[in-house]
Description:
The protein has helices at 17-24, 44-51, 69-73, 93-98, 109-128, 130-138, 171-180, 196-201, 209-215, 235-240, 258-266, 312-326, 340-347, and strands at residues 5-10, 28-31, 56-59, 80-83, 102-104, 163-167, 186-190, 204-206, 218-221, 246-249, 272-275, 296-298. By secondary structure, it is an alpha/beta fold. The strands form two sheets. Strands 8-7-6-9-10-11-12 form a seven-stranded parallel beta sheet, with helices on both faces. A five-stranded parallel beta sheet has the order 2-1-3-4-5, with helices on both faces. Strand 7, helix 8 (196-201) and strand 8 (204-206) form a beta-alpha-beta unit. Helix 5 (109-128) crosses helix 7 (171-180). The relative contact order is 0.14.
Amino acid sequence: MPKPKVFIFSPADPTGEIYRKMAADGCEIVLGDASWHTPMGNNEDEMCRMAKGADALSGTSIRSSPITARIMAGATELRIIAKTTIGVDDVDLTAATERGVLVTHCPTEANWSGVAEGTLAVILTLLKKTRERDEAVKRGGWRDPALQGRYIGRRQDGYAGLTVGIIGLGRIGSRLAELLGPWRVRILACDPYVDISRFVLSNAECVDLDTLLRGSDIVSLHVILTEETRMMIGPREIGLMKPDAILVNTARGQVIDEDAMITALQNDRLGAVGLDVFQHEPLPADSPLLKLGHKVLLSPHMATSNLNSGLKPGVEWATRSVFSALRGEVPDNVYNKEVVPRWIERFGGRNLL
């Protein structure tokens, strides 16, 4: 019996240990050129050739080519596409579901909680002017009134504190709300897909998007990228926000109209922006965002990257999912659950290992 073929389109184990173990356990491994640190890898034509005859695809985020229907077409016995990260926006989910292919992702706490912590760091850096104070002291300055920060939480003297708007109250959004708890801020949240109990546990007021945008001093995005959320923050939405509001995006770059956001910053219609994600990644060298000084705080899509966590738990989980699928078993992290009954009819109990 030939070895099952696994195409790792975007490897995320720098040691190669996990991939060597997969090979030792009976798999033919093909590695692509992309990686977490260099998401621009093989183009679609190259990936079609590399994926031909594959039984499984796996990898982290890839920007050079999503996993398209054309890539899947050459793998007629494809069982699974196993992402090592949260979200499946770089997989043609419709095509995978139509073909009866399982798509899995790996929302490990090391990943999603790292994003929540990174988001809070961005908020604090912008509110407290941490960068500006550091630069001023290194230039010989001292206690410039322009370096005053903004107090976050409610106080006993009657100060009401700031209002934080959280768009998307899933794992990351609710953890951010939890981290904000001791600050005693007012939290507005918008998420039509979670139960009202999630709002109660997060100490968040359930509001619609427009109300959140009008009432928040800080707006933080924590949604997955879908056709519904693509460009969900455009000129109209930005126009609803307070002119000194802070907008933070650690979700996906395409959920914000980047041009509209840049125009608002240039015209002082937004106070500041913190971005870990961008419409095009890596960020182009000619991006106007690079010329906006302290109005922007930029990060290279690394909010989830922390020592002793990061992608390793996700790689391990995705690898388990690949082996489950190759054994004819349904993994525990299927994203497109509607395909499971058809998949079981086709592959259930058929062990390739």
